[in-house]
Design brief:
The protein folds into two domains: 8-204 and 343-412, Rossmann fold (3-Layer(aba) Sandwich), CATH 3.40.50; 245-331, formyl-coa transferase, domain 3 (2-Layer Sandwich). α2 links the parallel β2 and β3 (67-70). The strands form three sheets. A six-stranded parallel sheet has the order 3-2-1-4-5-6, with helices on both faces. The chain has a three-stranded antiparallel sheet with strand order 7-8-9, with helices on one face. The protein has 424 residues and is of the alpha/beta class. It is built from 18 helices and eleven strands. α6 (138-144) packs across α8. Bound molecules: coenzyme A. Keywords: Transferase.
Amino acid sequence: MKALEGIKVLDFTHVQSGPTCTQILGWFGADVIKVERPGVGDATRQQLVDVPGADSLYFTMLNHNKRSIELNPKTDAGKEVLTRLIEECDVLVENFAPGALDRMGFPWERIQEINPRIIMASIKGFGPGKYQDCKVYENVAQCAGGSASTTGFRDGPPLVTGAQIGDSGTGLHLCLGIVTALFQREKTGKGQKVSCAMQDSVLNLARVKMRDQQRLQRGPLREYSQYGEGIPFGEAVPRAGNDSGGGQPGRILKCKGWETDPNAYTYFITQAAVWDQVCDVIGAPEWKDADGFRTPAERLDKLNMIFGRIEDWTMTKTKFEVMDICNPLNIPVGPILSMKEISEDEGLYQTGTMVRVDHPERGEYLSVGCPIKLSDSPVEVTRSPLLGEHTTEILSEVLGYSGEDLDRIVGSGAVGKPKEKSAA
Ligand SMILES: CC(C)(COP(=O)(O)OP(=O)(O)OC[C@H]1O[C@@H](n2cnc3c(N)ncnc32)[C@H](O)[C@@H]1OP(=O)(O)O)[C@@H](O)C(=O)NCCC(=O)NCCS
């Protein structure tokens, strides 16, 4: 049995943030019914296309374990079908621009009226306030949520990060809200509205930087490299390069081969508890008891020199050798892994974190599997649906349309052109 077996999700999501959320619900066993605009579908199907004529990886990697129904709720027949779907489903998830559902004729009040048990989950760029009507994409959220201003080097511009903390990060937050609301519904029998703003989710992930903003009012941030370098702080949390955020000095250092390999680097933390081991491993045992080196506080103004010496050592080793030598000594290090290296790591396929998926249009492709492992609800990743692949199946099996009634809906044009049968 899967954890969310029996839960039906009306998936009105598109692009990345919403689909991330519903994909997880699908991995946990929910029946996810993705509603898509007839003949068009989720815009990502046709974005960043690498195999002409096939759904893009952008789409396939975010829409596993779902069924697809084409439906235009802006027609009378479409409204009828959507109403039936709302009646049948436990959860409705959407990430339209603000007001889009209202304009379709389905505000929250109406949805609740149709099904008081339904949980309606929404992602918007901003919460209530002056920006509430804005359309928002990933990098806008990273900037508005405080991440960009605190990412990068002090003497460079703000940077966005490759991790999609605005889109996928918000999808994860929403997912937690949904299962929490489902849990509450077990006791109350009532649905509720779950809302996540992308700005809020990014800010939540940048929480430690808000911690530092307040610490800054009481004095300089001593663990930031700029403190040791004698550079004064301004009014806002500065960009800290690759300094570690936890108070233990850390840097990204070159390893053997860095001249030609852009990822021949390691993260290296000079954790106070293993200072002696660090000194021994890099061949500087004299630092263990030297004046000005004994305590973390004493070392702060020498970090550039210390990391320079450590880098002299890491440059003689590959990033994996650094890992192999430092790990048994409890020195925290981490190789900078490229996406190529990760995609070739068979261990990740064995745990299901990476998966190989077959697709009728594009053949086999790689995807990231479910990162959350439940011992009693194993995840089996199935390919994303073709556009409208399950329209007829959902109309008849989920909503009970048949005979003339089914013909009427199909003939109305509200559900696109029906497919004969599901593709293999
Ligand atoms: C992502 C976003 C910027 C995309 O904007 P967009 O491409 O213009 O898409 P919208 O959500 O505005 O929807 C466009 C229209 O398609 C319509 N539409 C969507 N699905 C439809 C369907 N199945 N049938 C008919 N019309 C449909 C909507 O009703 C809307 O029409 P309206 O503007 O006349 O009301 C926007 O949806 C948004 O801000 N979402 C919230 C934040 C978010 O999730 N952002 C990150 C996405 S990864």
